[in-house]
Specification:
The chain is α+β, with helices and mostly antiparallel strands. It contains 16 helices and 21 strands. Strand 5 and strand 6 form a beta hairpin. It binds flavin-adenine dinucleotide.
Length: about 450
Amino acid sequence: MTITATPLERLQDALPDADWIVDVSRVARLSQDFAWYSPVLKRQLADKRADIAVRPRTEDEIRGVVAACAKEGIPITVRGSGTGNYGQCIPLRGGLVLDLSAYNGFGWVRGGVGRAQAGIRLAAFDDEARPHGWELRWLPSTFRSATLGGLFGGGFGGAGSITYGPLAAPGNVLGLRVMTVEPEPRVLELRGAEAMLLHHTYGTNGIVLELEVALAPATPWTECIALFDAGDAGYAAALECASALAAAPGISKKEVCFLGAPVPDYLAPLAEWLPTGCHALLLSIAPQSEAPVQAMVAAHGGRIGYRRNADEVRAGKKTLLEYTWNHTTLHAMKLDPTLTYLQTGFDPARHVEQVKALERALGGEVLMHLEFLRTKDGALTCSGLQLVRFSTEERLEQIMQIHRAHGVHVNNPHVYIVEDGKQGRLNPGVVEMKRRLDPQGLLNPGKLRGWEQASQAQPLAA
Ligand SMILES: Cc1cc2nc3c(=O)[nH]c(=O)nc-3n(C[C@H](O)[C@H](O)[C@H](O)COP(=O)(O)OP(=O)(O)OC[C@H]3O[C@@H](n4cnc5c(N)ncnc54)[C@H](O)[C@@H]3O)c2cc1C
């Protein structure tokens, strides 16, 4: 090593055998996620990127990289697969991308609990668990590419949340193994509520190495599309049917997704099953629930226009899940790149009325896409991933304000600060955890306002 070596050169010298990525275009790619869904974030984050990336394969390699970064004061942004939506793994202050996608070993399944390394893809985890009679409780529509650590660090839930709620519901995530960011990194096991202080914090307060999660009984899910006629009456019928199906305690389901016209028209690969102008429900249900679902759909004036059993879904490599959640947005933006989206939470006591009122207020400009689910506390409701015909940032803000005025929560997807996406609410324990696990403030700096404010009030570095 020469005395003129830069911090980045010393970092590579410390671990010559690690899988370093220095090629500018590859580093730029690894500095991106799906922030481009938002015209606001696209503008704000366009020039943000890391200086270098590394793809460690073992805990020892991760420890070596983290120790060297802590000694040199180099920022670290942890990355799974980069399918996050709000610039979660876009480094604001350069430094290193710690790509954990090769740290992906499956651990074990024991009586309804599974454990794996953070970089495992969710589909791979599910494939490992199924022969034991279990499956993941939630599959985001990105399950083929997204990692377990990334879902925990930046995700919410997905198909399955209709039964088990979001990841944040107590009992879903049981524990984790985490590495501190210090010149001598420590590895800790955190359980229960303490572990959840690292959930949805965008990798700002700890590097999660392993996760232990509760599982659901493996089920051969059947996928169906329920169709409802174009027009206001069909819209109301489809919405009420979705809510009734979601609430029906005897019907086992993994997914109930409502798409009000014209959203189905944007799902081009499903066009042969979605008549122009229809309203549609995308459903994933247990085989024994198929007949009662058909009856409920018929009672609401709809019909089943598409059906595949689990074997057909697997053989056809096409699952309706990849048309739900934020995949709906992706398909729509492929056809119309001027669209953007919202993330909203409706009131369990009056969600159907709120949806109807917002459709009356904003229909045509805001296109309704709802995911039915249970809240963290178990109440049944729906969450909106509405498509928005974007005009200006001011109008986008007004649209969110109109939702709030109707009593609908907005989890703003057009901001990159952890607190701003949660309407300003954050458990103070999150910042306290960062003080414990990342005392130098090197993890994804600039994203956790509570930490930035505390650091300005008094220097926090050890
Ligand atoms: C088309 C599309 C559909 C989507 N559908 C859903 C959905 O159904 N449900 C849902 O919840 N989300 C959804 N998302 C968001 C995203 O897919 C999920 O959040 C996903 O699980 C993220 O996984 P990832 O591996 O890509 O994480 P990344 O994007 O790589 O990381 C997400 C955040 O977690 C942090 N992180 C990653 N690994 C670790 C770790 N080991 N330790 C600490 N922090 C870490 C990162 O720093 C980053 O801040 C969707 C996104 C897209 C683009």
